[in-house]
Amino acid sequence: MPSPSELLADIRRVGRDRERGGYSRHVFEHCELELREWFVEQATRRGLEVLPDGNGNIWAWWPAPGDGAVATGSHLDSVPGGGEFDGPLGVVSALSAVDRLRAEGFRPRRPLALVVFAEEEGGRFGIPCLGSGLATGTVAPERALGLRDESGTSLAEAMRAAGVDPEHAGPDRTSLPRIARFVELHVEQGRGLVHRQRPLGVASSILAHGRWRFRFTGQGNHAGATPLDDRRDPMLPASLLVSEARRTAARYDDARATVGRIRPVPSGTNVIAASVDLWLDARAHSDADTRGMVEELRYRAEALAVEEGCEVLSSEESYSDTVSFDGPLRDELTGMLAAPELPTGAGHDAGVLAARIPTGMLFVRNPTGVSHAPEEYAEPADCDAGAEALATVLRRWSR
Ligand code: HGY
Ligand code: MN
Ligand code: MN
């Protein structure tokens, strides 16, 4: 019976990003397809009935699809240059939990379902939790299928190339309606468990969070032949907005605002940019704070653009309000596992499902506290404790 760490070792070479470090595993790209095949092979080997949905999510049932089911799972895609555990730890822990239950001769009275959600990070098509959002109806298929990646490929085209018929994208009427409870195990993205000196935790809440795109437009020109007073350089307001985001967030209670992605066009060393796109990731403990922060930044962006003779357009690309996980279910998990509760600033598919299904999340200690970077880590012993805890929850909920 392989441990979670041994299962992770199976896929350790898949999707390594030599340039950035870490992993770049984007939905329906070659390496992510390889991970999908690996998961299907692992599930089939365990006698699970594999049932992909129309949104690129993969369900695997034990013994077979049925109502009142208990589900667990996570995602296999990553951010660019991401860590090894964010997503895959939840998937391998689900497989390991099934192994543990089968090894003790357990047979679920309620069907059990493992699930891999597509495009949780939004690393290719820009919308996080795309697979779970389509399945729950929170993301409209007509919007999703038209999303394009950096190369201009649409989600519909990428689905077709991966053998997923985009005609079937949309609310899941097959698997999701059968789920009575969902639990996601995830590496902690922070040091809450390190500070508490505990291997496991139970999620209490997720920050409100969203993504906004700002497009600054000026006049492309020659970097040498254009005097400073004859420029309309969109890089100026864009770069000033990056530091404004940090300053604005600092005025709100424990809010976070990040610009991790900025794209000048045409992006030449000796060229004044014609336009600059930047993406703001803003998060706070309330809907009002998040919205308030973004409104301030939209206003500042306008003023900064005007100062430089530029224009700016901004648009909301995704948003999810704070999630407070189901209270009684949280209490049951903390009691069952003798684990502390802790909040998270990271979004998850469990956050999407929580609006529809009694949902919980388990966290496994991350000694570095770092995530979305190669330094993300979880000790093998803590990963074992996580899979054992997940087996405990699945056993209790499905017997
Ligand atoms: O961005 C997030 O919080 C998650 O990792 N998708
Ligand atoms: Mn992530
Ligand atoms: Mn994740």
From TrEMBL:
Q: Which residues bind Zn(2+) 1?
A: H75, D86, H186
Task: Kindly list the positions annotated as binding allantoate.
Answer: R211, N270, R283
Q: How is the cofactor bound?
A: Binds 2 Zn(2+) ions per subunit.
Q: Name one GO molecular function term.
A: metal ion binding
Q: Which domain of life, per UniProt? A: Bacteria
Gene3D superfamilies in the record: 3.30.70.360, Zn peptidases
Q: Which family does it belong to?
A: Belongs to the peptidase M20 family.
Name the record gives this protein: N-carbamoyl-L-amino-acid hydrolase
